[in-house]
From TrEMBL:
Keywords: Carbohydrate metabolism, Glycosidase, Hydrolase, Polysaccharide degradation. GO terms for molecular function: endochitinase activity. It comes from the Eukaryota. Its EC number is 3.2.1.14. Residues 94-104 form the Glycoside hydrolase family 19 catalytic domain. This is chitinase. One of its GO terms (biological process) is polysaccharide catabolic process. It comes from Aegilops tauschii subsp. strangulata (Goatgrass). The lineage of its organism: Eukaryota, Viridiplantae, Streptophyta, Embryophyta, Tracheophyta.
């Protein structure tokens, strides 16, 4: 109810693709799968609620990180996440509201993932020159492009695509075009 446009915008196929894309991105961020896992690696999303050991500390299904995300996300959902960022890992409602906030909110120069998957985003000339065109790949660029996009094949991008295809198959919807961001420059 906090983000009524999610999964309700566009045709039935568009709605299904949005749900599949969200579940794919968040499953990758929280996966516990491995190549030979029972039922395959893509059956193991939503295993971890936080991540340590990197230059940041991510929490929740989208692995929200950094104060420039916690402040605006907290204000949008009415919770002081700067003073209590662990709520994203410990309160399921806060956790998913922050993930939805990230998904639904454009953060210039990036469009929102929602706008991309529902066809509301039109790439500029700069976007096209950077290889950023509508599709699941530009959503990966929005979520983690600075690390995963623009340098050719990347196993993390392939993992996101694997989850996306799995969820699309479950929901009975086609994948659409432009699934990867291998040749997309990250947003500035």
């Amino acid at each position: 109810g906090a983000f009524p446009g999610f999964g309700t915008t566009g045709s039935t196929d568009t709605r299904k693709r949005e749900v599949a894309a969200f579940l794919a991105q968040t499953s990758h961020e929280t996966t516990g799968g491995w190549a030979t896992a029972p039922d395959g690696a893509f059956a193991w999303g939503y295993c971890f609620k936080q991540e340590r050991g990197k230059s940041y500390y991510g929490r929740g299904p989208i692995q929200l990180s950094h104060n420039y995300n916690y402040g605006p996300a907290g204000r949008a959902i009415g919770v002081d996440l700067l003073r209590n960022p662990d709520l994203v890992a410990t309160d399921p409602t806060v956790s998913f509201k922050t993930a939805m906030w990230f998904w639904m909110t454009a953060q210039a120069p990036k469009p929102s993932s929602h706008a991309v998957i529902t066809g509301q985003w039109s790439p500029s000339g700069t976007d096209r020159a950077a290889g950023r065109v509508p599709g699941f790949g530009v959503i990966t660029n929005i979520v983690n492009g600075g690390i995963e996009c623009g340098h050719g094949q990347d196993s993390r991008v392939a993992d996101r695509i694997g989850f996306y295809k799995r969820y699309c198959d479950i929901l009975g919807v086609g994948y659409g075009d432009n699934l990867d961001c291998y040749n997309q420059r990250p947003f500035a």
